[in-house]
Amino acid sequence: MEYITNIAFALILLVGIVFFARNVKKLIRNIKLGKEVVVNDNKPQRWKNMFRIALGQTKMVVRPIPGILHILVYVGFIVINLEVLEIILDGLLGTHRLFAGLGVVYNVLIASFEILAFLVIVAVIIFWIRRNIIKIKRFMSPEMKGWPKNDGNMILYIELVLMCLFLTMNASDFQLQQMGAAHYVQAGSFPISQFLIPLFDGMSVPTLIIIERSAWWMHIVGILFFLNYLYYSKHLHILLAFPNTYFGKIGPKGKFNNLDAVTQEVKLMMDPYAAPAEDAGEPGKFGASDVADLSRVQLLNAYTCTECGRCTSECPANITGKKLSPRKIMMDTRDRLEEVGKNIDANKGNFVDDGKQLLDDYITREELWACTSCNACTEACPVSIDPLSIIMDMRQYLVMEQSAAPSDLNNMMGNIENNGAPWPFNQMDRLNWKDEA
Amino acid sequence: MGSELKVPTMAALFAAGKQPEVLFWVGCAGSFDDRAKKITKAFVKILNKANVSFAVLGTEESCTGDPAKRAGNEFLFQMQAVTNIEVMNAYGITKVVTACPHCFNTLKNEYPGLGGNYEVVHHTEFLKKLLDDGRITLEGGTFKGKRITFHDPCYLGRANGVYEAPRDLIKKLDAELVEMKNCKSRGLCCGAGGAQMFKEPEKGDKDINIERTEQALDTQPEIIAAACPFCNTMMTDGVKNKEKEKDIKVMDIAELIATAEDL
Which UniProt keywords apply (chain A) (predicted)? Predict the structure, then answer.
């Protein structure tokens, strides 16, 4: 029976990891529903972007208050993960504070984990106040009602509870160490949790052991729960920000891709002697009306979005009360992708037409036509998400597949086609300005 | 005045066996819009003054296709692009300057993939270079001490990272450059981009150009400087809407320089 806790721990760990792996597999499967894109240009720049933007958080601090608070939480979680390593090994091996032998280094590590845990708690509380008391505008948009709002708070609660459990675990451990309890080696330095010690005044060793063990178990189980919560929440950015910043657009923001399929058609039209290549199939669908028409990078973007709303708060259309919200474009894309994924799961691996699509059922035409393509959203995004590219792809579908542009734009395009300018002026009059007074 | 402008066409130069230093891509607004034509002329006056050897395509120029592409009509865009590239390549053009950030962006970023490879500069960059090379000189007289705020065109600033050239020119006028709440990489769009210029805006609380004009007015400027014919229109309309057109002028950087030079 002496190994029962080790076995229980190993089982819980295994279940946590297997579930997580299953969700990651599903995530990858869903992203692969998108069109394959070759992203192998300028690798040094891409790695640099990943290091600077994701690891270095450079775009977060454009807004200093949330930026710095976010860095606290981010550094806290990364560093405290070193402690999780010890917890996992202790759990599997039945040891207690396995790394205690590191001596002074261990003390410094534990002390820094504690200080970070405290800072995380402070940051999380401020984040909660910003969302629920101050009600910062970008968290109050229509797309943030219901689940997105609860999800945001849930993440803050989980983080708060995890940090509190961590400090409780340390405090009770410290008290046990001072009481000379068996197995509780004198190790670690507890600059924060020492202040919790008075809470344990007069408690017996067995009671303290129950508190310490409960906190230890709930902390690690909580972490495994959080790991598995990610897939269902907006919080995937903690993992996906890294690939997303790598695959993010490089080069001038104003450069939009030229559609190769169109280039082929145009070449055929311009050259009377050109013949379509023997192996050329039917030209595919132009633009995007559903998630499968988008690229894998765009779908990765959708999973990466953590709904911070910086894009929306900088969007000129949104600022002036139009329906367009770049964040909603990303949330809709993900919601539709999830819906398609579930459809595939429910139908033994095949997608069965559900009569729905991203266009109209999720993203309305009114939203798409409100965009000025100004790139404020892509500039604002701290993790290189590109809502603009989705808007443009969907406009392409509307115009090239459905001829469904607003009539003013049809007039403009008619003018370009007929007389080479967006207005009804004759091309032969293009140089008249030279001689006008 | 107009007759004094020297505006050679590529066709004429080509016939004479000459190649200009740079092609001036006038653009549709610069060719047809009454307000933008003044910018075009101001820029030509400076080019003439600096003895820059340039040419225009004139009646051989056609829309770059930018508004079509941004509206989603990739097909029309590429038709325009391929036609324009054929013309420019036939003339052996290597360098292009334009006063329109939309033409600038499209020519610079989207034409290379279709066979049009040119060195493309915006007129503010070109003017800055003329100044740096001593081909034009600026005496600040006219604008000395005037409060000027600069509106970043999205397709010049965020889209292509050109923030300093227009600002350097304003500073050279001895003017007081005042920045708006949103400027440079966080500049607020005037509302014309993405083909919005050619359609009514969607329903909302306010038009975008009004929002941007309010930001500009907050700086209490005497002049709102623009570097894009469409931004110019939007800001001019915004200033009119606020009934400030008597006090505040909306001027292109080229116009500022031409005026300073008394051209």
Answer: 4Fe-4S, Iron, Iron-sulfur, Membrane, Metal-binding, Oxidoreductase, Transmembrane, Transmembrane helix
